[in-house]
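User: Can you write out an input/output pair for a complex, sequences first and structure second?

Assistant: Here is one pair. Inputs:
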Amino acid sequence: MENTASFDLNRAIQNWRENLGQSPAFRSENLYELETHLRDAIVTLRGSGLSDEEAFIIAAKRLGKSSHLEAEFAKQNSRSVWLDRALWILLGAQLWGLANVFSFSLQTFLQAALPKLNDWLSTYGFGRVSESIPGQVVYVIALPVTILMGAKLFSITQHWAERRGWSPLDFVLNRPRVLTGVYIMLFLAPWGVQYGTVLLARWFALERYTGMSMTSGYTFFALVVLQMVVFASIVMVIASRRLRLRYK
Amino acid sequence: MLAKELVAASTVPLVLSVLTEGENYGYALIQRVRELSGGKIEWTEGMLYPVLHWMEKENLIESEWREAETGRKRKYYRLRKEGRKALQEEKQQWLTVHETLRKLWKTQPRLT
């Protein structure tokens, strides 16, 4: 039977290398050396009469499972691995903070808006929502929903972009200045969410709103800016070093 | 099939010994060991490279990228003075173990 789908060896090697390259355990130099080894092995196996596909499968298997290779290379490139982890910890902390602030703002806004909401519901003949439900219930529900929705949105965006041949995550992670800019946006976003909630509360004339105060003073503002500069600088340094180590 | 602990323990002396024959690159090192052992020593090939990098950090070997006949660059490794010294120490240790076992098992062939 004829094999209608011909095997593209270079494509297979490229996919194999990209798969390994997802891990911070491998530097660019390591990947190049492993690829050279793979190609040498394929040449030898083809010399024994195997097809491109057969030679690739056997050569890749002899090199070892990617998880085992990753574990061994991570011991040699531990600095690169930890820089990667530090970056994710910093970004993750900001994202967690943003999800928390969003959920808390939703809680305080809904708590303040409940009497007005009940008045509106009564006007149109609907039942009233109990005002004795603790606001924390909103927070406890909103937080995981916010995180899941954020993760889903990210996954959809990444999938959509990859089908067009690029990865937003790689684009951001491999450009220290872009990454620092994203970090600053994530740092400022919670303030934006809180400020937006204050504006909404004022627009709906919610006297009971007890969220963020807009009179925190210049000292507080200066401390926030200082914190942002310190953390953004740390992100910039880590991202630059990570890039130098991985793509040396 | 050799026990994996024995394969792991013998990797450094094997690499150092093969490099005494002259500089070499990863794939060729593996082929040489396979040839010498009659196929009995099978390394998970990718695992050799972290060992080579560790040996380089320990100043036992040094490396150089050079263009191969295929046009791609290849990393060649060669022995350093410290590596030759380490090889002598490894040799002494393995010979000690071999001699002891030989006496216990009363076998004739010697490891030279």
